[in-house]
Design a protein that fits this description.
- The complex is a heterotetramer of chains A (about 160), B (about 100), C (about 290) and D (about 750).
- Helix content of chain B is about 25%, strand content about 30%.
- Chain B has a single domain, classed as Ubiquitin-like (UB roll) (Roll), CATH 3.10.20.30.
- The radius of gyration of chain B is 13 Å and the shape is globular.
- Chain B has a 6-stranded mixed β-sheet with strand order 1-3-2-6-4-5.
- By secondary structure, chain B is of the alpha/beta class.
- In chain C, the strands form 4 sheets. Chain C has a 5-stranded antiparallel β-sheet, with no helix packed on it.
- Chain C has a domain of about 110 residues: CO dehydrogenase flavoprotein, C-terminal domain (Enolase-like, domain 1).
- Chain C has 11 helices and 14 strands.
- Chain D has about 750 residues and is α+β, with helices and mostly antiparallel strands.
- A 7-stranded mixed β-sheet of chain D has the order 3-5-1-12-9-10-11, with helices on both faces.
- Chain D is globular, with a radius of gyration of 27 Å.
- Classes of the chains: A alpha+beta (about 160), B alpha/beta (about 100), C alpha+beta (about 290), D alpha+beta (about 750).
- Chains A and D meet through α1, α2, α3, α4 and α5 of A and α1 and α17 of D.
Chain lengths: ~160, ~100, ~290, ~750
Amino acid sequence: MTKHHVTTTVNGDAVEFLCEAHETLLEVLRDGLGLTGTKEGCGTGDCGACSVTIDGRVVCSCLVLGVEAEGKAIQTIEGMAAGTRLHPLQRKFLEHAGLQCGICTPGILVAARSLLERNPDPTEEEVRYWLAGNLCRCTGYNKIIDAVLDAAREMRGADHA
Amino acid sequence: MTSERVASKGLSTGARCPARVIFTGDFSDRYTGSVREFEIEANNLRGVIKKLDERYPGLGERLEKETTVAIDGEIHEVDYSQPVRPGCEIFFIPKIEGG
Amino acid sequence: MRYEAPRTLEAALALLSSANGQARVLAGGTDLLIGMRAGHVAPELLVDVKGITEMTSILAENGGFRLGAAVTCMDLVEHEAFAKAWPGVIDAVKLIGSIQVKGRATVGGNLCNASPAADSVPAMIAADASVSIAGPNGKREERIENFTTGPGKTALAKGEIVTSFLLPRRLPHSGDAYLRFTPRTEMDIAVVGAGVNLALDDGGVCRQARVSLGAVAERALLVPEAAAALIGSKVDAAALERLAAAASAACRPIDDKRGTREFRIKIAGVMARRAAEIALARARETS
Amino acid sequence: MPDTMTFTKKELRVVGTRPVRPDGVPKVTGLARFGADYSLPGMLWGRILRSPHAHARIRSIDTSKAQALRGVKAVMTSADLPEQKFEYVGPERVAVNFWHMTRSVMAREKVLFEGHPVAAVAATSKTIAEEALGLIEVDYEVLPHVIDVEDAMKPDAPLLFEDMITRGIEPAPDRPSNISKRIELKIGDVEAGFAAADEIVESSFKTAPVHQGYIEPQACLARFDTDGQAELWASSQGHFVIRALSARLLGMDIGNLRVYPAEIGGGFGGKNVPYVEPVALVLARKSGHPVKIVLSREEVFKGCGPAAGSIMTVKIGIKKDGRIVAAAGVFKFQAGAVPGSPVMNACMCAFSPYDIPNVRSVGYDVVSNRPKTAAYRAPGSPISAYAVESVIDMAAARISMDPLQFRLKNVAKPGTPTVWGPKHAHEGFAETIRALMQHPAYTTPLNKNQGRGVAAGYWFNNGGESSAAVHINEDGTVLVATGSSDLSGTRASLAMMAAETLGVEFDKVRPTVADTASIGYGHLSAGSRTTFATGIAVVEACKKVIGNLCARAAMIWDVNAEDVVWDGGCARYTGKKSGEFEPLSLKAIAVKKSVTGGPIVAEVSVNAGGVAPGFAAELCDVEVDPETGAVKVLRFVTAQDVGRAIHPSYVEGQLQGGAAQGIGWALNEEYIYDEAGRLTNAGFLDYRVPVASDLPRIETVLVEVPNPNHPFGVKGVGEANIVPSLAAVANAVSRAIGQRMTELPMSPPKILKAMNGGR
């Protein structure tokens, strides 16, 4: 089987990898690049645990082929904190106990960041609908929603207003 | 409901008030010929189980493996050292396991 | 399996016609990759069309819109002019899966997957969209209501692909809407979908209407009887009831894990009526 | 120092606060390692071949072509696992029969459900492993199958086990059946109770099997050395239990298997038993390579135990004043392909919230061609509570009594006998119902098409075996190791109790989940037991360490140890020369560890008893679309007696999570089978767990009636919350539409049909 040579950026770093045509981006990230923060919950795009962004769009990496990453900019959970500084969403998830088991957390954080980039002041309903593609079975979503709304508030600078 | 007093083989002081031991579930059907209640003198659960096992050989092991014990309503794991107060009510109930 | 990402339509068509085994067009991949994983499809060749500019553009054409078949749902939703003109199509496109799925899924893919429950199809049928098809024998146009022929089956011949859609110029006082019924608020497949597009005259009388239903037959249906119930009326309660009855009467659904036949027939009328009410309100708002 | 150490709420510094969990950062940065995240050099990928049939005899399995495929390093079938003796051992509710368990892991004579494993391969890539599965030839003789409980109980039903005679019936039936067991619990004189009743309310109910829906599929990595020693990385609710069961299934010594606890991505009872671990171990043993198995979501739904489905009939008799005088329930539970549904729990919990003098609970455990059920959050109790709390609601309506008042009037108190024998010993039930009654939601007016439902629920909570080790590092930081896997933030609650007990800051305590070779036995993180039972072990270990620290302080001061107490995180001298010695902090003593006897460590193992039950009362407001039957949950309030909330945020999270799962169970979740007995919705698209936009905010009321048997008053919190949820939603829908909903899930077609008078 011939492998494809793919040149891409992952979390801002230039990355090259080889993959077979049928391999998903999720498999490449996890098994090839060792970025296991992106999780597989279903493999059919129904749970959102594998959410990453490609050129700023949040997608399910289980529904993207590795070869499609050619020339794109991929962001995963591993690139969310700026070095040692957690993203406000990450901090707020910790402060609000927005996670229990934590398996859905990376995907939800990636999806929530994408929301706040587009809509810095979402309503609770907008957050709930935006995150409808990210299943969480532990929390009943309550504290996740709280954390996202609070992070949005902080990121808008509303705390200082 | 049938009940019986389990002989305590000379260990009884006579002054003590025995514990009331009751089986629920189908233990009594399976192991004690449908006898459900016993009066037993013992200081701890080891004594209770020992005396029941003497009366119904093999029962002790079944109780240890299959039951949880409620002593005056408080639920405990079956542990030999569990104290048995005079006059208390001891239920051997099916062990519980959660999700 | 081979993967190719041509930059031109011609190159894509050449690849498709040269394929030895099964060749599939890869746009968003949100249905195709699931099918491949489940072993339902095992293509020999994937032709990724996302690098072909004309398939990924939204352009004005004759007062309407030329919508590339590989435009993602999120790109379409965020296209302000399109969203203003065709809110009903946007209603439908917004329901195609999660935000993540919409970031990849395309209207062309939603059509070509040929699911009877595809959300965008009834909305596009109601919008009177046409489908542009390119193939080894050149280009052709097809009415969208005639495109799907059954579950998983389309009017595409071997080597043909859908390149774009043409949505016509908006009439004055017109509006469209799409509603579907699902047990959950999101992340579901339509049990019933209904698209309504209508245009009023200055007196508020409905002069044109198109009504389409999804998930109630082997493919999305155009229901002229339901449209006829609106045309000539002021879309009053009586007309809406006639619309609902005509919509229910047009259904020929099956029982499946997503809904019973009986339930679908009943709900089709309700969804059509409610969609018409939204379309009416939108028509009244537009000049 | 004093022998017992208990804290009043006032004195608490750490318990009851909301610090960031100690394992939090890796979980928000993606660095935490879950079951599928481990790899080893030379690792192979394992895949499992599963039955396409609901019921079939295996005539033969030919693995030769798969074996010959390049890249395939091992192929296994049931022949690679030793046969097990047929006997039920262990606790009655979950009596393990290894004869059945080995067949669940890998089918032998027959496949009993679609998805039943029949063989497995290990290969150098996923693709090759997948290809190899296609080369395994299984010759099946397809047999008639049976899916539903009712059908499985019919005399002419296809039998899963040709020799299964129902246990618990005297005299034993002379014919085999699919009924594994009948149980009956009884107090009082039920017939006389009903005869004395003014009103009798009775109804029958049906619930569909549902799945726990943990987001992380089962996954593990195994390696096996030629000397028979093996290591396993697995995400489970109890790595000690996985170790014991896997070792038994492979016929190896427990001492030769070391299990490392991966982070676990949700379990809810579904990860109490092994599915992939024994398979990975066998493949690793056969191939000589490490083997990783990660299940797909479809495999999880088809192969890993869901919760039971049921049919039930409940009848209660009441006096005009609202007193319940008699109750009877028949609970028929679908166990799946192997005996062992939680019907015993259902029978025990069903009427436990109430003081009813005459009660009979009868249960049936019924096998059918579905995956064997696994535990799911308060296993059994939500199902029977749905039936009982529906009938309670009907009874309250019958006499026009407020439904919570009705429950309060009949609520069980300490001393109230239970149908399963002992008398209740703990407070908290009435307090919880009252807390819900006082919630503003209870008196908020409703609009058209809206309904309000309430329900209460009981769950035992578990104690049991736990171990904890406390190490004092030389800089005064504290390591707390336990053997309890952390599903939901228990590292935080355990560390908080340690910090409180030792009198140190929370962030000086670092909790870990230790592997099976590094700490004493810890039972499952299940039954709401971890903060309770492992918490006791942690507190006891801290107390032991405190004794040690006091002795060292005495050495440092050169005084008698009896004159030293631990107070406020310091050793204090209380003897005659008081005033001469400044208190010594934990850190100050730790620095002197070498000269005072070496490392400062205490390890304590307990078999914790004195568990107090969980009790929850919930309110649900819904609006039903009269034209479609769609239900919108408008408001949900859950009140639970938690004893004492160690970390209130995570306790609230438990209540919210339980309610959300209950709402899903009530409205949309179900296993749907086709005619051939195949599951048609084995994915998250059509197995509809609630998404964020489906749910309202879930409001919590933490009722704190401390458990006197726990140093901090803890009662388990993980499970009681789901017990009333199904009924609360059902009662709300029933009141909204004016029709009693007797079947779950209450999907829109069913509701619409009920609204249209059954048409």
